[in-house]
Write a structure and sequence with these properties.
Structural class: alpha/beta
Strand order of the largest sheet: 3-2-4-1-5-8-9
CATH class: Alpha Beta
Helix content: 25-40%
Number of helices: 7
CATH architecture: 3-Layer(aba) Sandwich
CATH superfamily: Phosphotransferase system, sorbose subfamily IIB component
């Protein structure tokens, strides 16, 4: 069972992953990231940040999509993590309706872009990414910006409206 889909450019942050797994009752994490699969050191660092009682799989995006369709994983409580809005949208399009979507820290590398907009502290997007987030919102209106499980969630729709993006 998929508990949530999360976008965070840090993927797994050791300071917040415990809170997410607890609040979502997740016992497994799938990181869908094409680059991380081939980077042994970064993969190891990501896995080391996860509590020992949580299963972790790092998969290429397409492999993660196939894995998520496998009925033998039905008993697991899975948190899916991606690091780009494009990957978020691609996976969300393949999931059943109603899966919670959480957006965490994203856009540090966008600070130098002339078209970048800061939607919230720790959440900066370019014009192209805004289009992707609008599509995400169209698929899942209950998408929220929430960097840690302890923070108060802010609806993505509110952030888009406040910044005149709708």
């Amino acid at each position: 069972m998929i508990m949530a889909l999360r976008l965070d450019e840090d993927l797994i942050n050791s300071q917040s992953i415990n809170g997410w797994c607890e609040s979502l009752a997740a016992d497994s994490i799938i990181i869908a990231n094409d680059q991380l699969v081939t980077d042994g050191v970064s993969s190891m660092v990501q896995k080391m940040a996860v509590p020992r009682n949580i299963k972790v799989a790092i998969k290429e995006l397409q492999s993660a999509l196939v894995l998520l369709q496998d009925p033998s994983f039905g008993d697991l409580k899975i948190l899916i993590i991606v690091d780009t809005p494009g990957d978020l949208l691609l996976i969300l399009e393949q999931l059943p309706a109603g899966i919670p979507v959480y957006v965490g820290t994203y856009g540090r590398n966008n600070a130098g872009h002339s078209d970048a907009v800061q939607l919230a502290p720790g959440f900066r997007v370019t014009a192209d990414e805004i289009k992707l987030f609008q599509k995400v919102f169209a698929l899942q209106e209950h998408t929220v910006f929430q960097r840690t499980a302890a923070e108060e969630p802010v609806p993505l729709g509110n952030l888009l409206q406040e910044n005149n993006i709708f």
